[in-house]
UniProtKB/TrEMBL annotation:
Record key words, sorted: CBS domain, Cell membrane, Membrane, Repeat, Transmembrane, Transmembrane helix
Membrane topology: Multi-pass membrane protein
Subcellular location: Cell membrane
SMART domains recorded: CorC_HlyC (SM01091)
Record-linked InterPro entries: CBS_dom (IPR000644), CBS_dom_sf (IPR046342), CNNM (IPR002550), FAD-bd_PCMH-like_sf (IPR036318), FAD-bd_PCMH_sub2 (IPR016169), Ion_transp-like_CBS (IPR044751), Transptr-assoc_dom (IPR005170)
Span of domain CBS: 211-270, 278-335
GO cellular component, one term: plasma membrane
The protein, known as: HlyC/CorC family transporter
Organism in which the protein naturally occurs: Duganella callida
Membrane recorded as keyword: yes
Keyword DNA-binding found: no
Upper taxonomic lineage: Bacteria, Pseudomonadati, Pseudomonadota, Betaproteobacteria, Burkholderiales
Ranges where the CNNM transmembrane domain occurs: 2-201
Amino acid sequence: MDTVPFWVQFLALALLILCSAFFAMAETALMAANRYRLRHEAKRGNRRAITTLWLLDRTDKLLSLVLIANTLINAMCTALVTSIAIQTFGHDDNVITVSTGVVAFLLIVFAEIAPKVIGATFPERIAKPTSMVLKPLMALAKPVIWFVNLFVSQLLKVFGIKAGSHAHDPRLSPEELRSIVLEGGNFIPQKHKSILLNLFDLETISVEDIMTPRSQIEALDLDLPIEEIMRELTTCYHNKLPVYEGEINRIVGILHVRKAVALLNQEDELSHRHLRQLLTTPYFIPQDTRLFTQLQYFQENKERLGIIVDEYGEVQGLVTLDDIIEEMIGEFTTSAPSAARADSLTGWDAKGECLLDGSTPLRDVNKRLGLNFPLDGPKTLNGMLLELLQDIPEAPISIKVDQCIIEVVQVHDQAIKVVKLRQLAPH
């Protein structure tokens, strides 16, 4: 080295540090690259993305190449700096110690930390061009990589580790997909993000969570006089109505209201027999059926309305295809009384209070008011309060639930009809 000019040695040192920085930056960028984005670009024919994925599918060989190259380059840097120091200051232990510290500082700053930070900041932008260099290098270094990995594989066997047994699994769980959607930021419009999150919930929510409760079902009793039945038909809010005999648990069919009203224009006198001829077979649903499953059943059976029953066959409520669609994309404009109650749930007033119907579903209350009422038990405010109080209360009475005071305002027919929610001031 004595015959080599200093400027050549310093230039060689700079080139070695740049090479070390390249491998460190490439390694970090490749490991941090978004594989899903790369797959998307690869499907569109991007050669760089295809090459990057090819390398990522051979992570063991890729890491071997990078680490072998970095180790050799760093060793050469240390040797070169030591040689320069000895040539300049002579053989002295202090000189060798200082030169080792200098080269360690240079490598840490310029060949490790800085390039790895850059690689982590712009992973795809760096991974794609560097992969075009690493792939031919991997082919050239194949014998060396094979020789090194031969010893590595034997060492792993000693510890009972099988190489490749825990390969990267590209599949994501629903919870991981939910996190991706939540972190989508400005890439996903807020309305689209809300719909996607609601779709994930369909697997965890049952029809019981969104059903129209039994007490609110609009239905026809065939035991009533025909005049009263027709009066109910002309004033009902729905196009299809459950029809029962005597009491709601004896549902005999579903009546299409328009077909029934059309009979009024006929010359023959309308009778119960005419209505029975219009009935279609009722479709019953177990109360613990998941929403996504029920959506598939509606599609397969060409149904739009189902009667929810418990394990004893007693009617618990009613669910429609529209109810499930509303759970996914939001409520539709409708004139039904239940919708009017839902529309009134707009939020807290200026005093931090909110007046609600006792039959309001807890899920709607949590969504609109930002509360966390438990959903694993009763489904309505009335049901939750009756469970907590273990008695039918006499208004007025108040109870604290989830950082708010619930005041029972009106009780009628063994049910809580009106409640007032009042926010507690944060501590």
